[in-house]
Amino acid sequence: MPGADLKIYVATRPVEFRRGLDGLAAAAQEMLGLDPYSGAAIVFRAKRADRIKILVWDRTGLVLVHKRLEGSKFVWPQLRGGVMRMSPAMFAALFEGLDWRLVRPERVRRPQLAG
Asked: pLDDT in tens for each of the 115 residues of the chain?
């Protein structure tokens, strides 16, 4: 489960799923304008939307997570060029195969005074 401060970026267009670590890192840089070594998680989808790959730099190396849903598809943002930002709560729902669009984190108001 990612931490609340983890930045998560989602590529809205499918990528060639034969790509590995280096190919996805290059796609993050060239197609999305993201730094794959920033520590942010970058989520890619397959054409059929039943598989995702997540690329993240953990300060010692690149990590690649690959998940395939059996019998269903991931709920995905509209197909368009570019990238979108997703909250850790929304990502957790996406990763479970749930409709992440229904996740609405509550806004917490910052206290004015201590105590």
From this structure: 455 678 999 998 899 999 999 999 999 999 999 999 999 999 999 998 999 999 999 999 999 999 999 999 998 877 677 899 998 889 999 999 999 888 876 777 888 888 7
Q: Record the pTM.
A: 0.83
For residue 60, the number of C-alpha atoms closer than 13 Å in the C-beta half-sphere is: 0
Cβ atoms 83, 11 nearer than 8 A: yes
63, β-bridge pairs: 56
H-helix or E-strand spanning residue 44: strand 41-45
